[in-house]
Amino acid sequence: MRSRTIHILNGPNLNLLGKREPEIYGHDTLEDVARSCATLAMELGLETALYQSNHEGEIVEMIHRAREAAAGIIINPAAYTHTSVAILDALSAFDGPVLEVHISNVHKRESFRHHSYVSLRAEGVIAGFGIQGYELALRRMAVLLG
Ligand code: CA2
């Protein structure tokens, strides 16, 4: 049977979520995101596994592992969103749906945050809904996977 596991990948500095800059990123931690997504996934007949790395190459390898283990990827590449062709290329070698999430509204921020390499591959993008964006992406993933 095909995997129903969704890998939720997070880029640099998101390990600090809930610990710094709450005015931009809120008070919830990445562990809170992992918990709320796991609970929602059960309702949706999915499973989730959440990972975070501060290193571009490690994120590329996470995406390679998802090729074998995940039905879909939800990714917040953080600052690598705006710089990483390597992450875009890795995602292009993944067969399932890819959804891009940003906690903040990147379009309301500095112009360098307005461009995303990852958006060239993503089926959809959610930005500015706080950590609720991860849950919204998971609901969309359930629709896409049927
Ligand atoms: O809004 C988002 O989710 C971002 O992907 C977050 C990135 C930023 O570079 C993107 O432009 C938009 C930054 C993640 C840093 O996360 C922190 C969380 C708490 C405290 C400090 C950093």
From TrEMBL:
| Keyword terms, alphabetized | Amino-acid biosynthesis, Aromatic amino acid biosynthesis, Lyase
The UniProt GO MF terms for this protein read: 3-dehydroquinate dehydratase activity
User: Which residues does the annotation say bind substrate?
Assistant: 76, 82, 89, 103-104, 113
- Entry-linked InterPro entries: DHquinase_II, DHquinase_II_CS, DHquinase_II_sf
An individual GO BP term = quinate catabolic process
Q: How is the subunit organization of this protein annotated in UniProt?
A: Homododecamer.
Membership in a protein family: Belongs to the type-II 3-dehydroquinase family.
The identity of this protein, by name, is 3-dehydroquinate dehydratase
